[in-house]
Amino acid sequence: MDGRHRDLGWTWCAVRLTWRFDRGGALSFSPILTRVLVYDPNPFLANSICNGLELCGPFTAKSCSGDVSNLTGVCSTFRPNIIVLDPARVPLSPEQLTSQVTRDLPNCEILGYVADGDRTEAERCLAGGFVGAVSQGRGLEALIEALEAAKLGGIYVDQCFARFAERRALELVKGDPDGSGRLSERERYVMEHVARGFSNKEIAGKLGLSPKTIETYRSRAAGKLGLRRKTDIVQYALRNNWLG
């Protein structure tokens, strides 16, 4: 077996249930299942992860193996909510993967299942639009936590990558290297969500960052645009069709 997945860390987890009345008026329940597609060139590994997810959480999981081109066909039929893959095993960059998946499945997200300790790959995942990066060394329990966070609209950064990701985020908001005053993609994201009524804490949860880092993005963007109050941010967003 591939050493990267030698310990799947099997745990038993409770399945969330939703109650409903059937046509006869009897009370019944059914699990709220998230569709998870697991890709790995090795079919044994992909199947093992799928089996673990279905045993331990509210997931219906499907494996995909072989050439990465197989993903397109499986996605069109299975229509997953989340795709789990190791970006190092895929010839496309995280940005290309995100672009391709969101074009075909706008509501589908990608979660990086990264080799233990590979901080560079974790950074590529987050920069490329993935909803998180999980270390393979943490086992199945961490993968389930990440899937649950993604389902709630958050971004999950494994604890072994968290300090690095936070430090990198702070580095990105220091200074204005080209002096252009243009907003970065992250600055615009923060300002747009401020205009939509999200708090710094809520935006931080979506991006997997601290509220302090979000405040840094917000202050920097407001300074570039000459905006002082929240009403100014909302008006600017309306004028530039950010909220359409």
Write a structural description.
- The chain is an alpha/beta fold.
- Helix content is 47%, strand content 16%.
- It is built from 10 helices and 8 strands.
- A 6-stranded parallel β-sheet has the order 4-3-5-6-7-8, sandwiched between helices. Strands 1-2 form a two-stranded antiparallel ribbon.
- α4 packs across α6, α7 packs across α10 and α8 packs across α9.
- It is elongated and about 55 Å long.
- It starts with 16 loop residues before the first strand and ends in a 5-residue tail after the last helix.
- 34% of the residues are buried.
Name its key features.
disordered N terminus, 10 helices, single chain, six-stranded parallel sheet, 16% strand, two-stranded antiparallel sheet, elongated, 244 residues, alpha/beta
Q: How many helices does DSSP assign? A: 10
Strand content: 15-25%
| Biggest sheet record | 6 strands, parallel
Task: Write down the overall geometry.
Answer: elongated
The whole-angstrom Rg is 20 Å
| Strand element count | 8
Stretches where pLDDT is under 50 for at least 5 consecutive residues are 1-31, 175-180
How would you write the strand order of the largest sheet? 4-3-5-6-7-8
**Termini distance?**
50 Å
Secondary-structure content class: alpha/beta
User: Whole-number average pLDDT?
Assistant: 78
N-to-C order of helices and strands: EEEHEHEHEHEHEHHHHH
Q: What helical percentage do the residues reach?
A: 40-55%
